[in-house]
Amino acid sequence: MSKSKLPTALIRLQREYRELTLDPPDGITAGPVSEDNFYLWEVLIQGPEGTPFEGGIFPAEMRFPKDYPLAPPTMTFLGEMWHPNIYENGKVCISILHPPGADPNGYEKASERWSPVQTVGMILLSVMSMLAAPNDESPANVNAAKMWRDDREAYEKKVREGVRRSLGLDA
Amino acid sequence: MDSNLDLADSTDWLNTSLPAFAALDSALRCQVCKDFYDTPMITSCSHTFCSLCIRQCLSAEGKCPACRASDQTSKLRINTTVQDLVEAFKVARPTALELARRGSFVDVDAQAGQRGGRKRKADNSILDEDEEEAHSQRRKTRRSTRGVSSQTMPSQEVIYVDDEEDGGDASYQPEDGLVSCPICQSRMKEAAVFNHVENCDGTPASSRQRESRSGSATQPSQPKSLIFSRPSRPSTRSSSQQHIPQLNYSMLRENALRKKLSELSIPASGNHQQMARRHTEWANLYNANCDSSHPRNRTELLRDLNAWERAQGQAHTSKMGGVMAKDFDSAGWSERNKLQFSDLIAEAKKKRLEKLGTADESKKDDGEKADDQQEIGDVEYKSHDIEASKDPPMDVETIGSLLPSSTPTQDGSQTTALPPQIIPIEGTNESTTPAGSPFRPSSKLSPARKPPMFTVTERTMGNTQPEVP
Known about the structure:
The complex is a heterodimer. A 4-stranded antiparallel β-sheet of chain A has the order 1-2-3-4, covered by helices on one side. Chain A has a single domain (about 1-165), classed as Roll (Ubiquitin Conjugating Enzyme), CATH 3.10.110. By secondary structure, chain A is an alpha+beta fold. Chain A is about 35% helix and about 15% strand. In chain A, helix 4 (about 140-150) packs across helix 5 (about 150-165). By secondary structure, chain B is an all-alpha fold. Chain B contains 22 helices and 5 strands. At the A-B interface, helix 1, helix 2, strand 1, strand 2 and strand 3 of A face helix 3, helix 13 and helix 22 of B.
């Protein structure tokens, strides 16, 4: 009867934390910022190899709603990110983070969107593959999407500069 | 503490001698709550979840979380096989895990090869006792599927599996000198069969058959437990425990809904939306409890409902609770809702720009000016409230209902979105801020945020050091 002691969301988040700690996917670390608040996680994502993000380590935060896993968390990168699917304030716009009910952009298949069987690990893997392969159909950052489509070289250069800046190196 | 037990999960097996058990362990867990199935129910698309989990999902979305096929709670059926698997595994798990952990440094293959002979000769070491026990568990299961259980300490679960297995085993023939009807499988004297077949309506007399069969195939003590364990399920479900039907909340006025809640003797406070959500959750809890083979009493369910309500951050006892409370955690509040706040501000700003016809201002935060904020605060707060009540994510209705004006909303978002020059506005808003809660986030929040981030960074980065290009 563990369910009656703690909210479902908390139990599940603790489990996911454990799983991610003991069996972490490549290039991803994630966990609650403090043990007092399991609803706010800090995440580090390694830039996927073979992309302009390679070599970078990108901190982000994830916020979980109280009715998680019924509703999806939100994810926000804390540093600068030049990417078609990341808003300029760092918020990640990816279908797996959108509840099936609401389709603000009208292009996503229901099957790609959030469902309670999705996990933090799956979200982070999706975000990693999003870094490697942007979806320019409904960009969150229109300028980045334009650049990605029209001038790939400039886009990659800008991303690399951002990565170097985030690592404290001269661009 | 049992928090360890609570948090036991499939990764427990990873560094033991039985890593393959991780998959078994996780296969016996609900994909929604990641815990072992509690009253597993199967959907019409053949996916299994805890009764409460799937009810919550279906009442929120009406779709199966695994395949997104539409489904209804009324179509859920209990998956007793999975339930028995889970019960049996839960019993076996601690011993097996203990054994697997101790054996982690032993060569698994060699151990498996020698197990049979070596164990008999072994001394009375604890390891071997454990091994014996775990081993016998396994043997028991194997044996019971063959229907020849003769174990000294039979458990209910095993007997039940036994029974299930036999139920589908048409080739099994008890040696009682009778033959079975080809239609309903009832056993009778050979001479009576033809007469019987004429009148047989095809309803299998399975209960009678089961009793007689388990009586002949198992030990005398077992039919008793069988009789006790079997009928308990149908009886708890069909007797006094009627499922609570779903309501169409939009068809009910607030007072009618309130009456419904009172009839169910659950708290009937709050606005229409809060009551609707409470009713949904209560129906989920209650109906899941109806499915359960170990139903809990009403008091416990009410406690769960209360816990759920508190977890949702809108305890029914205090409608204005959160923001008005003296110890209200304003920093935490604005922190938690930062994203929504900044979205709302962005929204409001956009509208204002449209009004002014100056669409050239950039969306960027640094474009914001203190006087902008002030005006938005005065002019646009109504649209904030509307936005808030439309937006599905959590806590939003709390914002809508808790905040008569959107001033805290403003404060919250300014914390991170804006440089310090907005502090004067906070001053002006202070009078309307409930309980004078000290929203001083720009000074309070940012430092509070940073240090944890670094600790996490240091703690977790270890293996992912950046390779400097």
